[in-house]
Specification:
With about 475 residues, this protein is α/β, with parallel strands linked by helices. Helices cover about 45% and strands about 15% of the residues. The protein is globular. Bound molecules: nicotinamide-adenine-dinucleotide and uridine-5'-diphosphate-glucuronic acid (UGA).
Length: about 475
């Protein structure tokens, strides 16, 4: 196997951008080129002003500034990058299919297929192709079939190297992740050499014992399993949050009690308005689809319940707002603090906020939303994507605010949708003074200081707790 001197990554998104930036920073002897069909995105990655990168992640601009122009490049010249590289990552999006067979369930692999075809057409010498996108188990078979059937005589090794980073902590996760999975073909010397080449790249900064080599199918399926397990924990604690509200138990005390058991562990037991993000729902739906297509209905039903519970939690939160505000929110100003699917990211894909807003807007609420990182355009796009009403109607019912104090002025209720730290430190007395009374706060993330808010006079609802 040739030494890896040039890497290319197809897809300059939330995964491709940060992952390649870290590889470039840690492997200064390797040229890393990130390519994308989206010209605007590449321009943003090349922006002089590091505040204007297309993705917000703590620590990202420092890593990009270290490596960009030295051995990290962003380009739209996909063919050249493929030609020049010994190793090619595919980090394109794999959203849920919105059409045809498997609509609403299966992963849409058209971008993966297009990338594989491009590689097959352009490659003139042997390449290692790395699946970085999250893919259904056995996708590598389809990728191999595309690559091998072009007949160019080029040999391809296909590896699966799923990404486990979480948004908001991407750089930290990339630098100090729990493990890296490298799935490949142990049975041939070429397959083993390809796995070793990728292992050596990660070994620049990760301890060897965290670099796990597996077979390709285990690697692909481990990624779906990991996301399914994490999402299942959130749905499990959210299921208990309703039991807590009805019985007087406190969900945070339940999380602490259960999470103290070392067999369970404390992480991912924060009850919330529901999980969002581009992957949990998409990956579970994909797993459910695979199981159903293979006749495993009981397994499919089991995992589907995680999604059903999550949808229920979002709706339950919205209903709580409507019920508390005397059974209608029509023409009432409801202020959303937070729109991103979690703090420290500007990503809004599948954010609980858009579903809660949509539900309240069905009841003719006027939503005023403030988020420290999400662009106004994005919030409208999210609502339009749901397709519940026309763009004009969404525009009329959603007001995007630039200042949290203006956003909450004359509001009937404030709802916390994202756990941004800054919300905790607001002048809540000032917010209270300017709101309509009774002043309701619905804390969908359980981040606010209950005693302080109660003392001010707010009527506070928290997830998984009795009303105060
Ligand atoms: P993204 O939408 O942010 O980025 C994907 C990029 O690929 C886009 O910029 C798109 O223009 C580009 N692209 C699509 N087709 C292309 C083609 N044929 N040629 C060149 N560029 C093309 O997606 P993402 O969030 O980075 O996710 C990528 C994959 O990684 C998905 O499979 C996802 O499930 C997985 N993943 C995501 C995360 C996350 O936190 N976002 C974490 C782990 C794994
Ligand atoms: C998740 C996984 O954590 C990553 O390991 C994985 O790589 C990634 O999906 C992916 O495949 O895309 P991410 O979606 O970025 O990462 O963020 P998480 O921190 O997992 O949060 C997901 C959602 O669950 C958020 O809406 C978050 O607010 C919610 N959540 C998380 C809770 O409601 N409670 C918790 O205790 C934890």
């Amino acid at each position: 196997m040739k030494q890896i001197k040039n890497i290319c990554c197809i897809g300059a998104g939330y995964v491709g951008g940060p992952t390649m930036a870290v590889i470039a920073q840690k492997c200064p002897e390797i040229n890393v080129t990130v390519v994308d069909i989206n010209d605007e995105r590449i321009k943003q990655w090349n922006n002089e002003n590091l505040e204007d990168l297309p993705i917000y992640e703590p620590g990202l601009k420092e890593v990009v500034s270290d490596a960009r122009g030295r051995n990290l490049f962003f380009s739209t010249d996909i063919d050249k990058a493929i030609e020049d590289s010994e190793m090619i990552f595919m980090s394109v999006n794999t959203p849920t299919k919105t059409y045809g067979k498997g609509k609403g369930m299966a992963a849409d692999l058209k971008y993966v297929e297009l990338s594989a075809r491009r590689i097959a057409e352009v490659a003139k010498d042997d390449k290692i192709v790395v699946e970085k996108s999250t893919l259904p188990v056995r996708t590598a078979e389809a990728v191999r079939s595309i690559l091998d059937n072009v007949g160019s005589g080029v040999n391809f090794q296909i590896l699966s190297n799923p990404e486990f980073l979480a948004e908001g902590t991407a750089i930290n996760d990339l630098l100090y992740g729990d493990r890296v999975l490298i799935g490949g073909d142990h049975s041939t010397p070429e397959g083993q050499a390809a796995m070793d080449a990728l292992t050596d790249i990660y070994a620049h900064w990760m301890p060897r014992e965290k670099l796990l080599q597996t077979n390709v199918w285990s690697s692909e399926l481990s990624k779906l399993t990991a996301n399914a397990f994490l999402a299942q924990r959130v749905s499990s604690i959210n299921a208990m949050s309703e039991v807590c509200e009805k019985t007087g138990a406190d969900v945070e005390e339940i999380s602490r009690a259960v999470g103290s058991d070392s067999r369970v562990g404390p992480k991912f037991l924060n009850s919330s308005v529901g999980f969002g993000g581009s992957c949990f729902q998409k990956d579970i739906l994909n797993l459910v689809y695979i199981c159903r297509s293979m006749g495993m209905d009981e397994v499919a039903d089991y995992w589907e319940q995680v999604i059903i519970m999550n949808d229920y939690q979002k709706k339950r939160f919205a209903d709580k707002i409507i019920n508390t505000l005397y059974n209608t929110v029509a023409e009432k100003k409801i202020t959303f603090l937070g729109w991103a699917f979690k703090k420290d990211t500007n990503d809004t894909r599948e954010t609980a906020a858009m579903y809660v807003a949509n539900h309240l807007m069905e009841d003719h609420a006027n939503i005023h939303a403030y988020d420290p990182k999400v662009a106004p355009r994005q919030m409208y796009e999210d609502l339009n994507y749901l397709g519940t009403r026309s763009e004009e109607e969404n525009k009329a019912l959603l007001n995007v605010e630039k200042d949290p104090y203006e956003a909450t002025e004359d509001a009937h209720a404030v709802a916390i949708l994202t756990e941004w730290d800054e919300f905790k430190d607001y002048d809540w007395q000032k917010i209270y003074d300017n709101m309509k009374k009774p002043a309701f706060v619905f804390d969908g993330r359980n981040i606010l200081d209950v005693e302080k808010l109660n003392a001010i006079g707010f009527k506070l609802y928290q997830i998984g707790k009795s009303d105060s």
